Amino acid sequence: MSDNPDSTLKAYQPRFRQIDTGGSDPTVDCVWFHHAGGGSNTLAHRVRQSVDRIEAAGLPDIRLLTPVTPLREDAIDERFDGELHTLADQYAAILQQDFGIGQLPFVVLGHSFGSVLAYEVTRRLIDGGHSPARLVVMSFPAPDRLTHQTELHTLDDRSLMQQVDELFGGVPPEILDNDETWSHFVPGLRSDLGLLERYRPDLDAAALPVPVTAMVGTDDRAVSLADVQRWDLFTEPPVRLQTLPGDHFFPLQRIAEVFTAAAWDLPEPR
């Protein structure tokens, strides 16, 4: 799974990173769960590039929280061997205990694989008495549409990279064509895909009593509007559908638009 022998890997310690969005006095919390293989550094970089557009959107000041995930960045030597449900338990507990989630109006966002984590964490936050103003799912089908005809996380490195690029696109050529860079990228990607492909949603669970915005890129080769529309089966209020120009990774190119979709009706700062 990794160039590091398993004996050198520590148990994953779930944690979140706070990313500066340019505001001085946050009045809204956004919790962002990123795509398979993604990381907080990429999100932070995209946010820095978008600060002017975020400010121009006239949104409340945002405190952005995102997990530092296993086998990359500060957790490069940490491995998570549990299931997605367990990880969602831990993330929800940290958000409540360490970040006081719920004290400010907040939204939960998930991009691709992160949509499943966002959904499961939202369920747990609601059970804990902290209901978000909105769940935003991006570039991902509703849970009942999940199919894993090929278990990507079991493939060898080269096949895994080729399949991911074929299915979703967006793998930079400097990674796809350079075996030496795989040791930095593949372990985290494989870990996330393993969590997703072992995940089984509770299709009998009560619908979420919060609004859901389901977003998809107009050029997404992996996810259709019909796929995301089925999130309507998992929430009591009607799902708000939105398309934006771009492919499977449109959220990283359109940070300001994503924040606008997430926080457009939340209280303005006083």
Quick structural overview:
With 270 residues, the chain is an alpha/beta fold. Helices cover 37% and strands 16% of the residues.
Would you mind describing this structure in some detail?
With 270 residues, the chain is of the alpha/beta class. It is 37% helix and 16% strand. The protein contains 9 helices and 9 strands. The protein has helices spanning 40-56, 84-98, 113-127, 157-168, 173-176, 179-198, 225-229, 250-253, 255-263, and strands spanning 10-11, 15-19, 28-33, 62-68, 78-79, 106-111, 134-138, 212-217, 240-244. The protein has a 7-stranded mixed sheet. Helix 1 links the parallel strand 3 and strand 4 (62-68). Helix 1 (40-56) packs across helix 9, helix 2 (84-98) crosses helix 3 (113-127) and helix 4 crosses helix 6 (179-198).
Characterize the largest beta sheet: strand count, sense, and whether it forms a barrel. 7 strands, mixed
- Give the rounded overall mean pLDDT: 89
Oligomer: single chain
Q: Roughly how much helix do the residues carry, as a percent range? A: 25-40%
What is the number of helices?
9
Distance between the termini: 50 Å
Structural class: alpha/beta
Instruction: Kindly provide the radius of gyration, computed on alpha-carbon positions and rounded to a whole number of angstroms.
Output: 18 Å
SSE ordering: EEEHEEHEHEHHHEHEHH
What global shape is seen? globular
Strand order of the largest sheet: 2-4-3-6-7-8-9
Number of strands: 9
Low-confidence stretches: 1-5
Query: What percent strand?
Result: 15-25%
